[in-house]
Design a protein that fits this description.
The protein has 100 residues and is mainly β. Helices cover 7% and strands 30% of the residues. The protein has one domain: Roll (SH3 type barrels), CATH 2.30.30. Strands 1-6-2-3-4-5 form a 6-stranded antiparallel beta sheet, with no helix packed on it.
């Protein structure tokens, strides 16, 4: 099943408090800190740009320490911090939290 999102849908879901970030900012040397409220896009080509929002983040170093919510289905799940790397099997930053 492929999911796709148009810009109007994203802006409606994420109205207020966020700005769009370019995919070019996701280089390993420019590590972006994971923060509650950020929106990340799944890089996997089998899933057409699934967007998730960070709901909780526990900086413990343990696996699956980031709680995320799918913007399409509103379902919650846990992900490993190492997947937020901009690579094919992970997520890249789509929108950052403004003012933090």
């Amino acid at each position: 099943m492929r999911l796709s999102y148009d810009k109007a849908f994203i802006e409606k879901k994420m109205a207020g408090g966020m700005e769009i970030m370019g995919a070019a900012c996701m280089k390993m040397k420019d590590r972006i800190m994971i923060k509650v409220g950020q929106v990340w896009r799944e890089v996997d080509k089998r899933v057409d740009g699934r967007l998730v929002e960070v709901v909780e983040f526990h900086d413990t170093g343990l696996p699956r320490n980031v709680k995320i919510k799918s913007l399409a289905t509103q379902r919650h799940t846990w992900a490993s911090e190492s997947r937020f790397n901009g690579k094919t099997s992970g997520y890249e930053l789509f929108k950052d939290v403004v003012g933090e």
